[in-house]
């Protein structure tokens, strides 16, 4: 983010320097030189010279205004980036989205003052972003592809002011849809984290109840001369049953999450969903293991009503934790769809 902001500001300063009629104030703002329209002799050479000088002055003022606007955008981007460590700004996306909004706005404004050869160099960048975010039938995408899609030998002399405007409008539209797509990713991330916290509290409370009141969380099955519990053969449930089942469910969920991460393709976006998905999986795993064994013991789910082996019971808890993938699989698919829509590496679809 910081590198992109510096790059935008550097390009703006380079465009100002190439104008030959502007300098910089101590604050870094662009300002006209003493004689921006040319020498006094050129102004006195006739009406043509005066008109040319006036046109040069107007161009210099326009470049200076654009440069100062870009400078303000970069300053704002750095301000937002400096505040991204706050939890509220992190959750709302204010810091990250605010920084990228100002960087992208400055990048769009840069098209108005860059020399023609640099505009030609940015055409592939604009085309890539337009194709990544604007749908195929979008008029802005259609116009850009018609004008530049086949222009492999585009020359600086071919770049008109209307081309700058067309590229700027299309780029602005692509940035807007990019921000909307990243906003959907951020909201989904927050939902995952919120669900993880709620499940953690509920499962933690249920396990704590099983520790203090073992009879309230029945995890034992009839077997042999007593009850086969996760902690072994006993005459009644013990306080260690619920934590042991929850731990095995967590291990099973972690194994499933590791497998999902191995096949998961992380795309370049502003927000990542890998960690929230893993956290949710490891919270669901213990819940399914505990409640699954309770349901099996009560006969609500089809399965063995008697278990005579502690390893069998423990392995069942592990499998139940691993089986959380059946519930979180659709969430993985939803996450992939959101990341693809927010990533510039994936083309936009209708």
Automatic annotation (TrEMBL):
Keywords: Membrane, Transmembrane, Transmembrane helix
Region (Disordered): 19-52
UniProt key word Transmembrane helix: yes
Transmembrane stretches, start-end: 191-213, 242-261, 273-301
Protein name as catalogued: Uncharacterized protein
């Amino acid at each position: 983010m910081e590198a992109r902001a510096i790059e935008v500001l550097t390009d703006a300063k380079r465009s100002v320097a190439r104008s030959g009629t502007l300098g910089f104030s101590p604050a870094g703002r662009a300002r006209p030189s003493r004689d921006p329209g040319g020498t006094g002799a050129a102004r006195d050479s006739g009406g043509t010279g005066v008109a040319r000088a006036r046109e040069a002055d107007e161009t210099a003022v326009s470049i200076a205004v654009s440069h100062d606007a870009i400078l303000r955008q970069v300053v704002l981007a750095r301000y937002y980036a400096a505040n991204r460590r706050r939890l509220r700004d992190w959750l709302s996306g204010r810091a990250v989205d605010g920084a990228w909004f100002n960087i992208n706005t400055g990048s769009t404004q840069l098209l108005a003052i860059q020399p023609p050869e640099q505009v030609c160099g940015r055409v592939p960048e604009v085309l890539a972003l337009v194709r990544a975010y604007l749908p195929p039938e979008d008029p802005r995408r259609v116009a850009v592809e018609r004008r530049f899609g086949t222009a492999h030998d585009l020359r600086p002399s071919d770049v008109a002011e209307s081309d700058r405007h067309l590229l700027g409008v299309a780029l602005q539209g692509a940035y807007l849809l990019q921000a909307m797509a990243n906003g959907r990713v951020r909201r989904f991330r927050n939902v995952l984290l919120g669900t993880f916290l709620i499940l953690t509290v509920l499962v933690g409370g249920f396990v704590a109840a099983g520790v203090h009141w073992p009879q309230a969380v029945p995890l034992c099955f009839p077997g042999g001369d007593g009850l086969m519990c996760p902690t072994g053969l006993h005459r009644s449930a013990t306080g260690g049953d619920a934590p042991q089942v929850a731990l095995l469910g967590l291990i099973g969920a972690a194994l499933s999450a590791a497998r999902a991460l191995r096949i998961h393709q992380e795309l370049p976006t502003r927000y990542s969903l890998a960690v929230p998905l893993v956290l949710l999986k490891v919270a669901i795993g213990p819940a399914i293991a505990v409640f699954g064994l309770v349901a099996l013991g009560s006969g609500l789910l089809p399965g063995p009503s008697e278990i005579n082996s502690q390893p069998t019971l423990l392995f069942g808890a592990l499998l139940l934790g691993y089986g959380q993938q059946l519930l979180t699989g659709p969430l993985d698919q939803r996450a992939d769809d959101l990341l693809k829509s927010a990533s510039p590496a994936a083309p936009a679809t209708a």
